[in-house]
Amino acid sequence: MPHTVVAERERDALLGQGFLAVPSLFTAAEVAEVAAELDRLFESFPALPATSVLDLGATDGDFGADVPEILYPSVLSPALRRSAVFRRSRALARQVLGPGTWFRFDHSIRKPPGCGFETVWHQDRVHKRSGLAERRLNVWVPMGGVGARDGCMRYVPRSHLGGVLAHEEVPGRRGALRTVGVDESAAVDCPLPVGGAAMHLFETVHSAHPNLGEGTRTAWILQFTRPRAVVPAASLAHQGIHRWRTRSWRSR
């Protein structure tokens, strides 16, 4: 049996609604351990490999000043993979998705104080490159308490049931693809205290507010995947393709 991290009713709510907010998944000390590693990486942002960094802000802004993003921070700082936050997130993903679930990807997004950039509405699946059938779960862990003013996550309930929706490029934003026609009146904000986490399925339409607060909002996002056909060959195919692409990405 998978290790139980959330109650079965919470798991059912996640699968039914497409998202879940858990206010007390980690201790403050466990989050602080991760925050220290991420702070160290963001402090050296200009010196990180070009393939490890993005900026999700304005196309005409100073790179790294608007919404800096670090790809695969757990590769740059292996201590993140040893953290309690990582281990519990992985156990959670295995409880939700089932046997054969494995860690696929992580990134960290930072919104400085007064950052006016929202994370546009989108589905993660729109960025999927592999044609392999799979399920994925994203675990979004803020390094401090967050509300709507500070850049918390927001979701459209049951939006994961509608398949891949139409997306459009966002003028003036780096690499942003926005879901077309989102009914924001149906959206649910997910404020969290320190130690909380929000999670969503691969097809769930989601966004994050701008950070209009006075503190820096940093989040670590971990993605886990499971082949829809859980047989050894399917799992090996998924992991083999992922490892090949990861090596290719790192060598660029």
TrEMBL record:
InterPro entries: Phytyl_CoA_dOase-like
Signal peptide: none
Molecular function as annotated in GO: 2-oxoglutarate-dependent dioxygenase activity; iron ion binding
Keywords: Dioxygenase, Oxidoreductase
Gene3D superfamilies: q2cbj1_9rhob like domain
Pfam families linked: PhyH
Protein name per the record: Phytanoyl-CoA dioxygenase
Organism of provenance: Actinokineospora spheciospongiae
Organism lineage string: Bacteria, Bacillati, Actinomycetota, Actinomycetes, Pseudonocardiales
